[in-house]
């Protein structure tokens, strides 16, 4: 391909795309434009991207359905971080002559954030920090212990398995469940296989979600499952928002049916300013930070440059799906 092409880097909230990666390998062939805002409406996005040949998008922040791809005749390359993306219509991309490429992604950051949230819940970190800074009460919470308590993991894959090892290091009793999890796989990870999802929810002191989103996992945790939890138990979801019924969780938090929850994922992102979860009691929430670390971003954007360079040289790499 000849001439200078235009590349849009979307949702670069922290303006990290050009500071954490070296774009010089494609500088003479590509004009890079970064955007730090988020466009939620498809018409706005279509208008913004009309004059771009290449688009770099992070994870699943933006959907690229057929209705959008059909409106971007100039687009030739779409780069998405990670090697799995459920919001890109690959058939539509192929029909429109768009090559889709991915990048590597580390499972370490979401594991670390899971434990940051779990510990934040257990020890009331945010509440105590806010009170201290505001000259409020000195020690207003009584922390929940981890040692000797039961950690229930919904999913024991790459991330769930690492979360399990840390739980064991804390001296917790760790159990896991998913539709396909076997006793042998659980034993390999050093954890117990729960008899059922219901048994895990009812007996765990902390429940953490580490499942891929699919037809079998969408809405997996609803009002019935939340009602099984101990009133002293906590729920953590750093996986996919749709796995936990948001309205049911909100009702449980408001009613005090569980001790608390921590969320890093939401049905709508960025979370609208008037969303009820912003003011929900007993909730520790972060703006989808699971994968947001310097090392991961360096990988995302560094390999995005590699993807662009390979595509321009006629030999695309890391092609999806």
Q: Count of DSSP E strands?
A: 12
Rounded to the nearest angstrom, the radius of gyration is 22 Å
Classify the fold: give the CATH topology of the largest domain: Rossmann fold
Task: Give the proportion of residues in helices.
Answer: 25-40%
CATH C-level category of the largest domain: Alpha Beta
Strand content: 5-15%
Number of helices: 11
CATH architecture of the largest domain: 3-Layer(aba) Sandwich
List unreliable stretches of 5+ residues: none
Number of domains: 2
Going by helix content, strand content and strand pairing, the class is alpha/beta
Provide the succession of SSEs: EEHEHEHEHHEHEHEHEHEHEEH
Strand order of the largest sheet: 8-7-6-9-10-11-12
Whole-number average pLDDT? 97
Terminus-to-terminus distance: 23 Å
| Largest sheet composition | 7 strands, parallel
CATH homologous superfamily name of the largest domain? Answer: NAD(P)-binding Rossmann-like Domain
Backbone shape:
globular
